[in-house]
């Protein structure tokens, strides 16, 4: 036991004396959360639009007010004629133009039909689509409002409720995603680097010649990273909850235990990488290319798994991160218990054992 | 019982025979030079004796323990210093000593006493709190050796310990090896420097996995009618 403690203490010296390691361990999570939380977001707030109101009646003015009242759009300009539309877009500030035809109110009530034209700057297709969706939703709710006032028969009203994330906050997706990424980075990349570092420096040989059992060397090396990764998980969770108002509806204990499980999965991946690489550089490249990239692209963190082509969907199943993100979201947003997520938990546990098994086999082959 | 005994010790990697049935014994307190060109099988043989590699066949006993079945006891009885520098550069002198003492199972009190002794002997008490990375190479090498024999092993294995060190420091390093040998430690050393081979009590020369010669430097030189160990080595390594 004394041997083991001596070893772990040495590991902590390495970590706390290396500024780069420290930066990755503690700087990165905070920066990432802030970046994803505030800067990189799918939501659109206060996008500038222009209105070309050819009707100028009570009803068209109310529609314009409604668009602005949503908080997503600001009316930046009132255009007078069709010719100004092009100029407005070219100036670059305006993302969408709403064209309200002449005799808007009159046609609505008498012809029972009126067309509002939405022109969007599709230079950025994502923003354009989102803006159109917002505007369409606002206009149709306005339509319903008018119809109710006049008791028009035969309309279908849809009531939409976005469950588990009523405000459609993208932060609710990014917090679990960033957490997964950081835990993977700290546990897999950092451990594979720290183990290959000993190989590269030649100290691994000295350790193997010492009476320390090889298993103790590996456990001793990863132990500090288990602790630090766990601390990171707690930091990210508290930032998610404290700054971004992310709920934790399920059991916190279960959430933390699942974090520990995922840390173990990532560690086993890190150990696996370290058994097949000999330098820090290759270990880092292997973790970046082999783990982080596929995780970002395929885990559903940024691109929804459902919209991927079939082969990629199948491939995404081998990403431990995919399962962990599901677990996190289910516990935090839906209040899921172990009974709801036993499958994902089982898959992660199975993966961990599998990776550890291969690592042990590789290690034995190397020794012989 | 002699500290190192091997009988027909062999290691094969697939079809390649790295070490081919080598048989030799090392006497207690002796400085035993283990020479050979690169790829002659020195490192493989040494790794088997240290319990890092399982032999394919043959027998070997280190400090009286069987290298097949008693690797743990073998490891406790030996010290090891490799050609690549074996201390942690981002740890201080004291922390390195404490770490290696610790993993060899010394108690805190023992480590404390040993540290004080060692620092005094090397005359680096002032540098005890400095990072090892900041020390000159010669000091590191000496410190490295002292750490390898910190736990009073019966045998110490030195794998090209003086690579890249200036002649003066090499000479001082060999003084330390003599001192250790005089206090009863058996020294098993590989080297590329033939002048160092002259410092050994006995020398073995490996060629293509086999031990081609084993004797005192004086006897080897007269047998091969050579002036220096360098000539002896070249005669053997160039292959008859």
UniProtKB/TrEMBL annotation, chain A:
Pfam families: ABC2_membrane_3. Keywords: Cell membrane, Membrane, Transmembrane, Transmembrane helix, Transport. The keyword Membrane applies. The chain crosses the membrane at residues 20-40, 171-195, 226-246, 252-273, 285-305, 341-360. Belongs to the ABC-2 integral membrane protein family. The keyword Cell membrane applies. One of its GO terms (molecular function) is ABC-type transporter activity. It is found in: Cell membrane. Its main location: membrane. GO terms for cellular component: ATP-binding cassette (ABC) transporter complex. This is Transport permease protein. PROSITE patterns: ABC_TM2. It comes from Chitinophaga niastensis. Residues 136-366 form the ABC transmembrane type-2 domain. InterPro entries: ABC-2_transporter_component, ABC2_TM, ABC2_TM_bact-type, ABC_2_transport. It is a multi-pass membrane protein.
From TrEMBL, chain B:
It comes from the Bacteria. CDD domains: ABC_subfamily_A. Keywords: ATP-binding, Nucleotide-binding. Residues 4-233 form the ABC transporter domain. InterPro entries: AAA+_ATPase, ABC_transporter-like_ATP-bd, P-loop_NTPase. GO terms for molecular function: ATP binding; ATP hydrolysis activity. It holds the Pfam family ABC_tran. Signal peptide: none annotated. Transmembrane segments: none annotated. This is ABC-2 type transport system ATP-binding protein. It comes from Chitinophaga niastensis.
